[in-house]
Hemolysin family protein (Halobaculum lipolyticum), 462 residues
Amino acid sequence: MGLSPVHAPVVSPAQLGGLSNAVPITETTIAVGGALAIVILIALSGFFSSSEIAMFSLASHRVDHLVEQGRRGAEAVAELKSDPHRLLVTILVGNNLVNIAMSSIATALVGIYVDNAGAAVLISTFGITSLVLLFGESAPKSYAVENTESWALRIARPLQLSEYVLLPLVVTFDYLTRLVNKVTGGRSAIETSYVTRDEIQNMIQTGEREGVIEEEEREMLDRIFRFNKTIAKEVMTPRLDVNAVPKDASIDEAIETCVQADHERVPVYEGNLDNIIGVVNIRDLVRARYYGEGETELAGVVQPTLHVPESKNADELLEEMQETRMQMVVVIDEFGTTEGILTLEDMVEEIVGEILEGDEEEPFEFVDDNTVLVRGEVNIDEVNEVLGIDLPEGQEFETLAGFVFNMAGRLVEEGEEIDYEGVKIRIEEVDNTRIMRARVTVTDAYFDDDTEEPEAGAEAEN
């Protein structure tokens, strides 16, 4: 390959229609003009590339906040993001046009100095690709990632101008891409919902790692997100722990039951616990007994209550309790049998954590980093969260005690121990047939199993 002679042909004034003051167009002039055009086109390529990152990385809730603050360019950003599909088409059309124009100009310029057409194409392609990757893609996009908000505000109006200039092409390709998406069964919408639950939970986890929020705050927020997946059966006080009074009991007996149970309210039943007719409040009992206010019979101070299925969503139930001003509801199974009771305090504890009263024991008591004493009625998901393990949660049980009975297949006694995939559970305290407390130890074998499973999967693939 050889370079052409530098002595370039000169266009004479006669060739330009006799204009005596025409400037001769030489190869040098063309080269300078072409180089200048390439510089401008690279800048435009960087503009469109960075615009794509900035506009689509900026969350919709941040755009709304910027509009409320009255930031310059915020209205333009909001208008562009209102139709993300059209915005993307505008950016892609603009970017591809400048890249194609850049490649064409570069090939023509190199062709002036290189006789071999194939070599000219190769040189121009390699050179332009390198320039575009560095100055048209990598650098602008990196800048946009680090300055998303400020850059989006700055380029919003120029983007609107670009859309107006390229309107015929934008409208055409916008229609065609939507048509293709429709034919292929794809979604025409580009952006998803305003913000998803997973995104919020990920932000919470990141906030804890960065020290923005405390561990206790993160745990409470996690419980709030988990609350709408919780059912009444998982929150209720089980039937075995229910303190209740019969309908024909005296007011003094009802007061004594409340005091001994350390409860403000207790359910009232007729016949047995499967027929709970209402709830009595110790304040009403005291007024009736000692101040002569209202009824003197227990039936006269009984307040109505709700009966809800054990599968009822806790979130919906809380709303219903607030609307009806019920402090206590009865949880029943599919046969109408009383499974337990559920109070407003139980609901609050599900969100803020255990609220202990008097000599009530902690649900968890750590012995060391891998060993903890757990009350039998604690839910399996809480045990998993505290110890960072993955005990299965079955439909037949929700608590640690239920898990032990399910694994053993029989009643267990104090001192017995079961092992589930490296998690040892030793029964520490039993009351009649009920597991009151167990010692849960996470052994090294549990963590070894976790690391071996991926390796085994990799071997199977090989």
